[in-house]
Design brief:
164 residues; alpha+beta; six-stranded antiparallel β-sheet; 1 helix; 10 strands; elongated; binds FE2/S2 (inorganic) cluster
């Protein structure tokens, strides 16, 4: 029988890792964590602090896409394109109370806010609810190639209509 297969245990009362090795490993671990933190902070400091926002001007397509006397919700732009017998206007879909996204209710011919119950006419005028202001109208015009274009940075008067 060979004795090399036997597991030897340290003599009782003596630690298997020396105090010096233990402190060295703790120190190396702490230095590693501090180094990673420093690297992350340096990367964050040198990376550009840019806020990417969607474009404020967008094309809404050919006017023929919108039937007369219709309200069309453009979800990705959060805008209603309203076509009446006299022309087009663009109304914000963001409630002026606390910023919820409103919903077009064709059966009631109103734009309704699901959060606190404000209601608006299709032209943005407030009917009822806590909203302090009507829904703003955005500038709308035709591009050179005949498409509707909305500029969400420019508001217009509620009675301004794009005649097509
Ligand atoms: S957010 Fe629309 S009514 Fe409050």
């Amino acid at each position: 029988m060979s004795e090399s297969n036997q597991v030897t245990e340290p003599p009782s009362g003596k630690p298997s890792v020396s105090r010096r090795d233990f402190l060295n490993e703790i120190t190396l671990g702490a230095l590693g964590v501090a180094g990673l933190g420093g690297t992350a902070l340096t990367y964050q400091y040198f990376s550009p602090n840019v806020l990417f926002e969607p474009a404020t001007t967008f094309r809404a397509g050919n006017p023929d896409l919108y039937p007369v006397n219709s309200v069309t919700f453009l979800q990705d732009q959060q805008v209603y394109i309203v076509r009446t017998t006299t022309g087009f206007y663009a109304v914000s879909a963001v409630c002026t109370h606390l910023g919820c996204i409103t919903q077009w209710k064709p059966e009631a011919n109103t734009i309704a806010c699901p959060c606190h119950g404000s209601k608006f006419q299709p032209n943005g005028r407030k009917i009822e609810g806590p909203a302090p202001r009507p829904l703003p109208h955005y500038a709308i015009n035709l591009t050179a190639d005949g498409e509707l274009q909305v500029d969400k940075l420019q508001t217009t008067k509620a009675d301004e209509v794009l005649r097509v």
